[in-house]
Amino acid sequence: MAKRRTKTPSSQRKPRAKPSAVGSTGTWLAALLFLAAGGAGAWYFLRDGGGPSRAKWVPWKNAAAPAAMSPAVPSKAPAVRAAATATPVAGPKPVAKPAPTKSAAATAAAPAPLVEVKFAAPVAYPRSPNSWLEAQVALTRRGFSCGSIDGVGGAQTVTAWQAFQAQEGLPETRWLDPRTCAALPLEEPATAKYSVTAADLARLQPLSTSWLGKSQQTALEHETLLELLAERARSHPSLLKKLNPDFDWERAKAGAVVVVPAAERTAPLGKAAALHVQLEAHTLQAYDADGRLIAHFPVSIAKKAEKRPVGELHVTVVIRDPNYTFDPEVFPESAEGRELGRKLVVPPGPNNPVGVAWIGLDRSGYGIHGTPNPEQVGRTESHGCFRLANWDARTLLDLAWVGLPVYVDP
Fold first, then answer.
1. Closest by alpha carbon to 260, among 320, 200, 321?
2. For the chain, first and last CA: distance in Å?
3. DSSP state of 88
4. Which of 136, 268, 315, 318 is the most exposed place for a label (fewest CB within 10 A)?
5. Contact, 344 vs 325, CB < 8 A?
6. Tens digits of per-residue pLDDT, 54-86?
7. Prior bond to 9 cis, omega within 30?
8. Which residues contact 124 (CB under 8 A, 6 or more apart)?
9. Pairing status of strand 405-409 against strand 274-278
10. Can you give the pLDDT at residue 330?
11. Low-confidence residues of the chain, pLDDT below 50?
12. Does domain 274-321+356-409 match CATH 3.40.630.10?
């Protein structure tokens, strides 16, 4: 028999506990945090199309990327879930299907192989030179010779640099300062490609080491292709080797291509009104009738001070590709000359002792001429004449005239 429930009087009932304000606030904060965490997790999962693993971005490596202007990103294959296994049911044995072959469409849809694509910004001209090699080419084009172009800011290059600054009214510096570079723009690249010709190779010939042997040659031409192209490009042979590190100078054939400085003069020449030789600075400069400097050259001077003519001289003769008379009395140090006891006439050519030009002066035995050793100009002393690199001597031929005054300053 069930017991009868008795009703407790209200006076004896325990009061119910009222909900705490702190507990309610905590419950709401926990709920908000749970929702925020769930939203962040969903964003992380869905931002790449599902799954925490993201495709790695490969910057500009696909060959088609530059045309499409979008990086090539390998597409991710969707994950394949394994189908649930079921109890095998007896039935006919499945027939093996032939392996599928790649169709043209499938081949075309295959991703292109990744290749490196290098981008080079186009170089616009005119622009300022940004190296000593470019500065040397820019100076030479304007008639300010640095001697043999070698890509180095050496003494002769700095002297030409400062001569240009003086002419343009710029502050004198010894470095590639922005103001001078801006006033010396390159109108075209500083180097160019040159194709060796059969005529270049045909003119090469050995050079005799004796005066007698030289006098018996038909011409005193260049001995090697390197020597020939270095003089033609107004450059030091070592620079050409640096510009063409893999070129075989000894076995080169017609059609071979080399990189050389493009230093042909582009400024108009005109005619010189006066030449000035600075003995201390080892420079020869040409001025026009308005007193403007139109050409600057490094020059070798006499070794002995008593053989250096100081004062005003005048040009008496201008000869292109001269021969040379060897006089034993002028070369007392030559054992061969003492044995010969007579003069010899040496044929013309770039390896002639006076090079490719002779500009005679009104002092016996003195003149301005070229040299077969342009790398030594300004660094060694002559027997008394003023010696220029062959390319500078050729330039001076176009400036000089009979009667032109030459002022030699200490």
1. 200
2. 146
3. -
4. 268
5. yes
6. 443 333 333 333 333 334 434 444 443 433 344
7. no
8. none
9. parallel
10. 84
11. 1-4, 6, 8, 17, 19-22, 44-109, 117
12. no
DSSP 341-403: -S-EEEPPSTTSTTTTEEEEESSTT-EEE--S-GGGTTTS-BSSSEE--HHHHHHHHHH--TT
- pLDDT score recorded for residue 49: 45
User: Which contacts of 304-312 are long-range, i.e. CB under 8 A and separated by 24 or more positions?
Assistant: 304/381, 304/384, 307/383, 307/384, 308/279, 308/384, 308/408, 309/361, 309/363, 309/366, 309/384, 309/408, 310/279, 310/408, 310/409, 310/410, 311/407, 311/408, 312/405, 312/406, 312/407, 312/408
Residue 154 to residue 169: CA distance in whole angstroms: 22
Amino acid identity of residue 407, one-letter, is: Y
On average, the pLDDT of the chain sits at 80
CATH class of residue range 132-261: alpha beta
Residue extents of the structural domains in the chain: 132-261, 274-321+356-409
